[in-house]
Design goal:
five-stranded mixed β-sheet, 3 helices, Double Stranded RNA Binding Domain, 186 residues, alpha/beta
Length: 186
């Protein structure tokens, strides 16, 4: 009996074993991921149903407003009297600092930095979250022969850092719990 005669007889067993292995992996993978604490990202729940978002106009403020509405279920209002809290973007700044140079003295690498500063207050002005600064940075190699490509790369890196800043702000806002109202004196 040759090897080729035995092949058709073992093919169904090989398929069955492969199918069973796949089934085992499909069953075990969710159990292993659940056991290690992994879970899909859930929507952020803020302590307030209405919020005023104000501050320095720009892409970060627009992204922050968009994500608050899309991710948290909190409504953004324009009048502080209708809001339960006021989120103020105090400052956003970006910088690009050379960190490495070539032997001829030209820049070989930049550090890109995006910084946001915000605070959360009650409509009456009471500070709920004091001025908080969040910074994200990224390194980017640079070449004078690819100036336009590197400018596009920097724009993409800044956009990613901006989204990371918004995610971090939402995380901090989601973890904030307003102080309990004082009990009336008897």
């Amino acid at each position: 009996m040759s090897w080729s005669d035995a092949l058709p007889a073992c093919v169904p067993d090989a398929r069955r074993r492969a199918w069973l292995r796949g089934l085992g992996a499909a069953v075990l993978l969710p159990l292993l991921l659940g056991g290690c604490g992994f879970h899909l990202r859930e929507s952020t729940r803020l302590a307030y149903d209405t919020l005023v978002v104000q501050g320095q106009q720009g892409p970060l403020l627009n992204l922050l407003r968009r994500d608050i509405v899309a991710v948290t279920g909190t409504n953004i209002v324009s009048d502080p009297k209708q809001a339960q809290a006021v989120l103020t973007l105090l400052q956003e700044s970006t910088s690009q600092t050379p960190t490495a140079y070539n032997t001829d003295g030209t820049v070989a690498q930049y550090e890109l930095r995006d910084t946001a500063r915000f605070e959360l207050t009650a409509p009456d002005g009471a500070v709920l979250i004091g001025p908080t600064t969040i910074t994200r940075s990224s390194r980017m190699s640079y070449s004078t022969s690819a100036t336009l490509a590197k400018a596009s790369e920097a724009d993409l890196l800044y956009a990613g850092m901006r989204q990371s800043l918004v995610n971090r702000m939402l995380f901090q806002l989601g973890n904030f719990r307003p102080p309990a109202p004082a009990a009336p004196a008897r």
